[in-house]
Automatic annotation (TrEMBL):
Name this polypeptide is given: RagB/SusD family nutrient uptake outer membrane protein
Lineage: Bacteria, Pseudomonadati, Bacteroidota, Sphingobacteriia, Sphingobacteriales
Native organism: Mucilaginibacter rubeus
Keywords for the protein's UniProt record, in alphabetical order: Cell outer membrane, Membrane, Signal
Pfam hit, one: SusD-like_3
Predominant place of localization: membrane
InterPro entries xrefs: SusD-like_N, SusD_RagB_dom, TPR-like_helical_dom_sf
Domain of life (superkingdom): Bacteria
Family: Belongs to the SusD family.
Annotated ranges, domain RagB/SusD: 322-521
Domain SusD-like N-terminal: 66-248
UniProt subcellular location: Cell outer membrane
C-alpha cells in the first residue's frame, strides 16, 4: 500500500466520504464514529453489520494493519471537501478574494466578501456552515486526531513512522489554513472517539496554533521519506515546503531561508521546463516541480463539478483576471498568455472552442476581465457539461520555494548573490526566459521585485490574497479597489479586521459563551 498511487488507493470511493458529514465542534465525536462506520461499511458491504455504531472503534476497527491503510485513505479523502460546486482545497478560488481575479457567480463567496464586506454569516468559504473552510478543515483535523491516537495499535516500525508523518503533515496543513485565515482558532488534538466533547470549546492563541503546526511539521519531516512527490502521499519535501511557508508567515526570516535552502540543496526538486504543464494531466504526474498536491484521477475520482466547466464554459467563467493583474506583467513575459486568455484568441492560442474566437461579452466572458487559461488542459476541445476532468490541485511547488528563499533571505540579510540567483532562475526557466534582475538593487527595491515575481509566477494559485495580508498591504490594495475599469463605480471593501475572517456564527452560537467571535464582527 505505501508505494501505491493515492488515486488507486481511493478507487473504492472513500475519498468522497467527507461529503456525507455534517459537522460542528461539539459533535466531532459523533461524526468521527460515522467516518469509521462508513469505512467499515465499504469493507464489509456483503454482510449486515449489527455492531452498535458507538462500539465500532473498540470492536471492529484498529485491529489489523489493513485498518491503518483504510484510515489513511480516509484522512487523505478529507481533502476532497466541497463548498458548493467547488472545493475548499482548490487553491485557485482564494484568488477571487484579492485583486488578481473576479468571480461573476460569487464562487467561494468571494465577490460578496469583497463588495459587501465580510460578516459572520458570509457565504462560501468564509462562514457558510458545512461549506466553510473552517468546518471542512476541522473535519480533516478530527480524522487526523483519530488516526494519530489509534494507529500505534496496528502498526510498528518504519511504516508506522511514515504513516504518522503523513497525517501530521495533513493536520499541520489544515491548521495553517485556519491560522492564516481566521487567526485565533480552537486547538483540538484529542481523539474525538474517546474524548468528552460536552464541554464547549474556546479559541487558542494563534501563537499556540502555530507552535503545534511547527511541531507537527517537525514530526513529519523526520518521519517522511526523502523522495520525489509522485504518488499523492506527502513526502519530506512536502513538509519542508510547508514549514518554510509557515516560518515566512511568522517572519522568522533566517529560519525560513534555511528551511527553503535545505530543499534547494537537497536536489530532489527542480523547475519544470514546461511551465503550464504543472497544472494539467498527465504532465502533472511527472513534473519535477510539484511538491504537494491534492490528486484526482478520472473517471474514478474526477472533480465533482468539472474545473474546466467552471473556468471556461458559458454560464460560468468564474476565474477572470483583473486589468490590475494584467498590468503587473512585464512586457514580453510569456507567463501572461500562459495564464490568461485575451480578446481574439483562437485555438492556436489555446482557446478550446474550434471555429470561434474568444470575445469579451460572449459566453460569459465579462468585458474588462481576462478568463483563466492556467489549470485548463489544452487537450480538451469543445468542453461540455458532464465533462470528467482531474487536474490535481497544486499547493506547493519548487518555484514557490525558491521565491520564499529569496524573500526570507532578503529580509534577513539583504539582496545578496543567493537572492538574485533564486529569483533569476525562476525568471529564466525554459519557455519563460525573462531577463535577470538589474544588479545593485537595495533591499526595498528587491522586496518589490520579489513581490512582483510572486504575483506573476504564482498567479491563480491562491497566494496573492494571503501574501497581501502577511505583508500588511491588504487594506491599501483592496479598500476601494476597482475590479473592472469599465465599471469604476463598483469598489471593494476591506477593513482592518478583515485580516482575520469571522468565525461561522453557527459555531459561535453552539459554543457560546466559550467561543468568542473575532474582533470587529
Amino acid at each position: 500500500m505505501p508505494g501505491m498511487a493515492l488515486p488507486v488507493i481511493l478507487k473504492t470511493g472513500l475519498s468522497h466520504l467527507v461529503h456525507l458529514f455534517n459537522f460542528n465542534l461539539l459533535a466531532m465525536k459523533k461524526y468521527i464514529i460515522i467516518f469509521i462506520a462508513a469505512l467499515a461499511g465499504f469493507t464489509s458491504c456483503k454482510k449486515l453489520d449489527v455492531t452498535p455504531p458507538d462500539k465500532l472503534s473498540n470492536l471492529t476497527f484498529w485491529k489489523t494493519p489493513a485498518d491503518a491503510d483504510l484510515a489513511l485513505t480516509g484522512v487523505y479523502g478529507t481533502l476532497y471537501a466541497r463548498s458548493g460546486q467547488i472545493s475548499t482545497y482548490a487553491p485557485m478560488w482564494y484568488e477571487n478574494f484579492g485583486d488578481n481575479t473576479y468571480t461573476q457567480n460569487n464562487q467561494a463567496g468571494a465577490q460578496q466578501a469583497l463588495v459587501a464586506g465580510l460578516n459572520p454569516s458570509s457565504g462560501g468559504f468564509v462562514a457558510d456552515g458545512s461549506n466553510s473552510l473552517y468546518i471542512n478543515a476541522y473535519k480533516s483535523i478530527a480524522a487526523c486526531n483519530t488516526f494519530l491516537a489509534n494507529v500505534d495499535k496496528v502498526l510498528t516500525g518504519d511504516k508506522l513512522t511514515q504513516y504518522k508523518g503523513e497525517v501530521y503533515f495533513i493536520r499541520a496543513f489544515n491548521y495553517f489554513l485556519l491560522a492564516e485565515t481566521y487567526g485565533n482558532v480552537p486547538l483540538l488534538t484529542a481523539d474525538p472517539i474517546t474524548s468528552d466533547f460536552k464541554q464547549k470549546v474556546s479559541k487558542s492563541s494563534r501563537a499556540d496554533v502555530l507552535k503545534l503546526i511547527e511541531s507537527d511539521l517537525n514530526n513529519a519531516i523526520s518521519g517522511l521519506p526523502n523522495q520525489k512527490f509522485n504518488t499523492g502521499h506527502a513526502v519530506k519535501g512536502s513538509a519542508q515546503g510547508l514549514m518554510a511557508r509557515v516560518l515566512l508567515f511568522e517572519k522568522k526570516y533566517p529560519d525560513a531561508a534555511a528551511m527553503a535552502r535545505s530543499i534547494i540543496d537537497g536536489g530532489l526538486f527542480s523547475l519544470n521546463s514546461n511551465y503550464p504543464s504543472n497544472f494539467y494531466k498527465p504532465d502533472q504526474q511527472t513534473s519535477p516541480e510539484i511538491m504537494f498536491s491534492v490528486q484526482y484521477s478520472a473517471p474514478t475520482i474526477p472533480h465533482p463539478d468539472a474545473l474546466t466547466m467552471i473556468l471556461i464554459l458559458p454560464g460560468y467563467v468564474d476565474l477572470q483576471g483583473t486589468q490590475d493583474m494584467i498590468n503587473e506583467y512585464e512586457a514580453n513575459d510569456p507567463r501572461e498568455k500562459m495564464t490568461f486568455f485575451f480578446p481574439g484568441d483562437t485555438p492556436a492560442q489555446g482557446w478550446p472552442y474550434p471555429g470561434t474566437v474568444g470575445k469579451p461579452g460572449v459566453n460569459n466572458w465579462t468585458a474588462g476581465f481576462y478568463p483563466s487559461k492556467k489549470w485548463l488542459d489544452p487537450k480538451i476541445v469543445n468542453p461540455q457539461p458532464g465533462l470528467l476532468d482531474d487536474q490535481d490541485y497544486v499547493w506547493i511547488r519548487f518555484a514557490d520555494v525558491k521565491l520564499m528563499y529569496a524573500e526570507a533571505q532578503n529580509e534577513a540579510a539583504g539582496p545578496d548573490a543567493s537572492v538574485y540567483k533564486q529569483i533569476n532562475e525562476v525568471r529564466a526557466r525554459p519557455g519563460v526566459n525573462m531577463p535577470a534582475l538589474a544588479a545593485g538593487l537595495s533591499q526595498a527595491d528587491m522586496r518589490a521585485k520579489i513581490r512582483h515575481e510572486r504575483r506573476v509566477e504564482l498567479a491563480l494559485e491562491g497566494f496573492r490574497y494571503f501574501d497581501m495580508r502577511r505583508w500588511g498591504i491588504a487594506k491599501d490594495k483592496l479598500n476601494g479597489f476597482i475590479q473592472n475599469p469599465l465599471i469604476p463605480a463598483t469598489k471593494t471593501i476591506y477593513k482592518d479586521n478583515f485580516d482575520f475572517w469571522p468565525l461561522p456564527q453557527s459555531e459561535v452560537d453552539r459554543n457560546a459563551p466559550a467561543l468568542i467571535q473575532n474582533d470587529g464582527y
